[in-house]
Fold each of these.
Amino acid sequence: MNKQPEVTERTRQKFVDAFWSLAKEKPINKIAVSELTRRAGYNRSTFYEYFLDTEDLLSYIEDTLLNESKQTIQSTLPEGNSPIDMFKVLFTTMNEELYLLIGPNGDSRFLPRVRAELTPIIKSYLPISNNIPHFDYLTRYVHSAMFGLLQHWNEHGKNLSAEEMSEMMQNLVLHGLVGYVAPDLDK
């Protein structure tokens, strides 16, 4: 591509926008190049100048979102803050596109990538040592709980504030279900 960088980026972004528009209507794995090109207003040959196929476009989108999410979390939240601060930043930085990717019509390979990228960040906020037995199981539990709640929250129109979700997540992680629903029994 010998085009000007602004033209290249604008064209690439039109394909990304077309992808998101279609992802709101159908499962991601059912999106075809012909639909993308029609929605973006380009022909197939233009699409193939930028991407190998829809999987390549999806990889580009996921890489971009992961990098943006990590940068936002790391720049917004200095080391040493509490877990609730980390959860609050995570809940407020997750945008609609991330929910589409981790949702039921999303990309099943994306959530493991998110886990791999965010695990080091999440570990730094957990009030436990990396050396305890089965630490990997504990971090997996936190990830599963966190993303399960994120999906549920999104599916229900974010009917709780980010602060309420953050507090719920922190209490669940730090005290478990019994500690959350019956704090007196946890003592």
Note: The chain has a mean pLDDT of 83.
Amino acid sequence: MLIDPGTIAGRFEENLNWANRLDLVTAWATEHDGLRLLEKHAEQELRVRAIVGLWNYITEPEALRRLDRLGKLRLAGGGRRFHPKVYLFRGQGRTCAWIGSANFTAGGFAVNEEAVFETGDTESVISWFKNLWEDCGRLDENAIDTYERARKKNPPPRQSLAEAGGGMTEPMKLLEQVTDWDSYVAALRDCDIWWSNRHTWSVLGESVSWRHTIQVLHDILTRRDLADLDDDDRRRVLGIPGGGWGLLGSMRNNSVNTVFGRNAQGIQQILREVAEADDGAFPDLAFNAYRRMRKFKGVGKGIATRLLSLARPDRFVSVNGGSQEGLALYSGLTPRTLGTEANYRKLLEFIYKQRWFRAPEPDNRLEESIWGMRAALLDCFVYRPPARTP
């Protein structure tokens, strides 16, 4: 059968529920919901073998590390223009294979328009995978680190999208045109094109994007203890590496001690309360959480709103030097006072009243993902990069 583009992730989970083995081949891999599902099922004895391509440096090193931890990994590197996408599920006396266009990425499983054919005729697929597995050879213990260093020197190409009519409406004006949910989604798509054609990041892209940053860091903050994070994850949570991780506000180096030092336990408790709360607890919980965050020494509006937005991206928006002017224009509030408890409350109240925000959860996979981070994604409309020094 041909799998509908909007149900790829759902069908993937259905197959994992009966399979005890998964062999996957993908041109690129990134951190996304499908990877989290694999980790969940690996805890229940799912065995995974993965062959991942490295062409054009789109595959993310951290996704490779996670695949390596949960199963067996081999790489198709060496400059190969490796492009297959094949998934082979086996278990309980049955097999099925996916063959199609969907990479093991956020785009392949939720964003892009993909075509995937599922078949129970797997004999040739099993043979093909066996030959490819042997051809790729065992993973060298330093291969992922070597790839990561090379990727830093040769970052993946930014998304190349043509601008219809020779120009696009700037993000703030796109936001002004938003009324309901459909217009919000349309504005996000146009905003994605706008940023992609001017900078190294996008809104909905595979990596180095608002959506990717929110998705990955939300997972880190809500599934792991702050005390267990390594230095790289701590810096990613605070946006210190810059690039895509700095979207929603890039903090200074000394903020690592502020968040992960003596304040860590208290901050962790607030973030978990926010992440686990029912929708009915808002807006009061939001205001209370922000007030409590600001009481920690060294936690200003930038740190507080970034962490809260990552913990609950459907309910918080990040306020910092790059976003406050745009948020003030949108809400009618004074920019320099947006960080006060009173005005942050007014800002959230304004957002919560908008028709696009109050829309019911959609059943489209991409829009469902957007809906779950709809407040935090306002940042892509209001953000202004710092001016370059001549």
Note: The longest strand covers residues 47-53.
Amino acid sequence: MIRFATIGSGRAAERFLREAKKHPEFELAAVYSRTEERGQAFAAEMGAPKVYTDLAALAADPEIDAVYIASPNLAHAEQALALMKAKKHILCEKPMATTYVDCDGLVLAAHNSGVVLLEAMPTLFCPGFAKLHELIPEVGQLRRITANYCRTSPYYEQYKNGGRPNAFNHRLNNAAITECGVFCIAPTVAMMGEPERVASVCTKLGDYEAQGSISAQYPGVLVEWNYSNITTSALPSEIQGEEGSILVGNWETMSPLTLCKKGEEPREIALPEDAPSGYYGELDAFIQMVKARGGSESFLSISLATTRITDEVRKQNRVVFQTTCWNPVVCREDYGYSEHLQNKGF
């Protein structure tokens, strides 16, 4: 059994625990919350035996092996760093870090501490994503990808009515690019690697970046990423090749998939009815990595590349985020992560 603590008591933590409790090697050992009252209520709801409101005390608990982090974006890097120094394995909600400097520093810290670090990006573990890889050769040479992730935030009405929900607070490193855009970018990076260049535009509500579009150029392939926190799109995403295309109904879950080949009727591709969700899949992968004491390198490469792209998008659109205060150069002097990836074959 892998003994977990969770940080955060919102929608993401509730969703995670619903899936996690299905896993035979998951044990909920503790929850962390900013307030004792909320922590006790969440622990009672989820069946956790311990409640922490002090991060140092959580880090010092020898009966916790791993921590799932679902706090506000700005807190991810600082909390993960403190816990990895205490030898806790980390599964962190996306974005694992909101700046490349922080992401690079976290990856280096994980290596230096000898722990597993994984960004929670369920799309990469969905059965539909695996099936998509199988289908791509059927559409021939790829030429264009259009990925849409536009969904109205559940906090948007509160914002429009004069409230100031944290989800729309740019000072907490919140923006549509890190809330929705990464769902477009990370799976494309997993399939195609990093683009040669990107160009972007966005819509802002005050200083908050609320929606955007990005054009990315790969050798011979054009990519469009459309994302929004203030609209919901009914359009599918599409992967176009010279011999046909693949329609993706929901880019986050990579389903349903429809294969459209030249001269043939569109064909919906069946996925296993009993296949686990991407949320379960990422947890299972993380647990296997913890047991093996490694194996997350390729996923960390995706996280690093994705964050390099979002940094460039923010720069183009003048979206400013805070960087957690530590010096990743110290980690580099100990052991450069780029060298580590090369040694691992990435």
Note: The chain is about 40% helix and 25% strand.
Amino acid sequence: MELKNAVAGTLESGDIMIQIGPGEGLNVELQSSVAAQFGRQIKSVITETLQGLGVTDAYVKATDKGALDCTIRARVTAAAVRATGKDVWK
């Protein structure tokens, strides 16, 4: 699946900004003040969401501002849809 660069989310408190682009395998870079406590969970949610959408090769930069799992899934899905052009809501 071919990807172009895309972004979803904001840097507001309680949100997460997801930047996605072409890559080899799934490579997730996370910036978060709570990475020590929740970094593994955040990366897992990002990876599982992308795999569920059929995205297996991507570079993802995530800048977390305290987002809940449901927000992370929503932002990753939106970024993936923008990057692939594949509409998952149809």
Note: DSSP finds two helices and four strands in the chain.
